[in-house]
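Q: Hi! First time doing this. I have a protein sequence and I read that you can turn it into a structure. Is that right? Here it is:
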Amino acid sequence: MPQLNPAPWFLILVLSWLTFTLIIQPKLLPFISSNIPSSKPTMPTPTPSWNWPWT
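A: Yes, that's right. Below is the predicted 3D structure, encoded as C-alpha cells:
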C-alpha cells in the first residue's frame, strides 16, 4: 500500500512548508491591512426588548 510509505509525502510536505515560509510569507507580510481598527470607543446600541406573544 503506497499511502503507508511516508518517504515521498514527507519530502513534499517539508518542501511545501519551506516554500511557504521562506518565499511566499515574506512577500505577503509587508502588505498593509485595509481594515485598521479604530481607536475611538464604540457606543453600544440599545437593543429593544421583544414582546413575546405567549407570555
